[in-house]
Design a protein that fits this description.
six-stranded mixed sheet; FAD-bd_FR_type; Siderophore-interacting protein; alpha/beta; oxidoreductase activity; Rossmann fold; SIP_rossman_dom; Elongation Factor Tu (Ef-tu), domain 3; Riboflavin_synthase-like_b-brl
């Protein structure tokens, strides 16, 4: 994934880029809009035990299926990027949460596949790629995200020190999408229920009072809100670029390939 700022500490792991065929072990509807699929494969033994929060790419053929022909200029697979929610290395089980649209209002390769997937199905993945983690010892933490970045936020909250202080603002589509997340006692989670096209994350940023503390900031959501939030946050008097990460995971009405191109263009404009 291409990002704007990339100054946060990287998880010290070497990406495993050779494609791997994984098998669906189970699939579960966590909510109206989130489907959790658990995968397994012997090849997952090469994944680090702390790879939760890193990302993988799911590979699809030109018809949206998972059977891949020999790669050529005419058969290059389509890839969709997802965060590893959890990984059980002892049992070689990897959980991935998918944002889905059960009413068919939005269609997509990964969404459609996740809805019809069943135990025994297989799919090829690439990765994992290095994830981003929050720096330790920050005075304050501010996290902003929507359902697409909820798995990454959940992992980061789990890994914060017990005495960490901060707030996480998470936009979800319905009350059923709210999850019970492990977190430090002094980190408050604000669940913002709204349509995915709304700007409730931006409104939350605008409502945050000025502070003398220098926060570590992590933001990943739709392209439009990310840019608007970045524009505001970078003007804060206590803004520290070294403690900040911005990324967009999607853009309404744009394919993943189109979104990737927009992110690259945005990065070049900000350079």
């Amino acid at each position: 994934m291409v990002t704007y700022y990339l100054k946060l500490k990287r998880i010290n792991m070497k990406p495993r880029k050779s494609p791997k065929l994984v098998t669906v072990v189970s699939t579960e509807a966590l909510s109206k809009n989130i489907q959790r699929i658990v995968f397994s494969a012997d090849e997952l033994h090469s994944f680090d035990e702390n790879c939760a929060g890193q990302y993988i790419k799911l590979l699809f053929n030109q018809k949206g299926g998972t059977e891949l022909p020999k790669v050529s200029l005419w058969s290059k697979p389509s890839m969709r990027t997802y965060t590893i929610r959890s990984f059980d290395r002892a049992n070689l089980l990897m959980s991935v949460d998918f944002v889905v649209h059960r009413d068919g209002s939005v269609r997509g390769l990964a969404c459609d596949w996740a809805l019809r997937a069943k135990a025994g199905d297989t799919i090829t993945i690439a990765g994992p790629g290095n994830g981003q983690v929050l720096p330790t010892g920050a005075q304050n933490y501010l996290l902003f995200g929507d359902m697409t970045s909820l798995p990454a936020i959940a992992v980061m909250l789990e890994r914060l020190s017990a005495n960490a202080v901060g707030q996480a603002f998470i936009q979800v589509e319905s009350e059923s999408d709210i999850q019970k997340l492990a977190k430090p006692l002094a980190v408050e989670i604000h669940w913002l229920i709204a349509n995915p096209s709304s700007s409730v994350l931006l409104e939350a940023v605008e409502s945050i009072p000025t502070s003398d503390q220098i926060p570590a900031i992590w933001c990943a959501c739709d392209f439009n809100q990310m840019r608007a939030i970045r524009s505001i946050v970078t003007k804060w008097s206590n803004f520290n670029r070294e403690l900040t990460y911005f990324s967009s995971y999607w853009k309404p009405g744009v394919t993943e390939d189109g979104h990737k191109a927009l992110k690259q263009q945005d990065q070049q404009q900000r350079a």
